[in-house]
Amino acid sequence: MSETTLAQEINNGNYKLSIIAQFNKISPITYIIRIEKPTGEKADYITTIKGFKKFGELLLDLHSFAEEKLYAKDPQQLVEVLTAENIKTYVKLKKAVTFTK
Asked: Could you give the strand order of the β-sheet that contains 42-47, starting from the edge strand earlier in sequence?
């Protein structure tokens, strides 16, 4: 079995988040999201390409949403409003408005 790191980020706490492609000669490629503690302890989440697509799309939408630097005055309202579906809808509307300008 062999693997290669496709992407890796290390945060301020020295935790690593990696996307790994793992392969061997008799099976298809397995894609892994790996979290590694500073102590070296690892946790792997194995998903499908569709799973990566779903997470990737949400991360892109979240990036676009976060660029607006919106602030909530009421944290409870934020919990109710800040959902994956609402973020996706907001980004779609933003793109539609930007496209028509």
From this structure: 2-10, 16-24, 27-36, 42-47
Predicted confidence (pLDDT) per residue in 41-83, tens digit: 999 998 888 888 888 888 888 888 777 776 667 778 777 778 8
Q: Which residues contact 22 (CB under 8 A, 6 or more apart)?
A: 1, 2, 3, 29, 30, 31, 32
Is there a domain that residue 18 lies in?
yes
Say what the pTM is: 0.66
Domain range for 71 is 57-101
Number of domains in the chain: 2
Tokens 């697509």 — which residue?
A: 53
Q: How many CA atoms lie within 13 A of 73 on its CB side?
A: 0
Within a domain: 100: yes
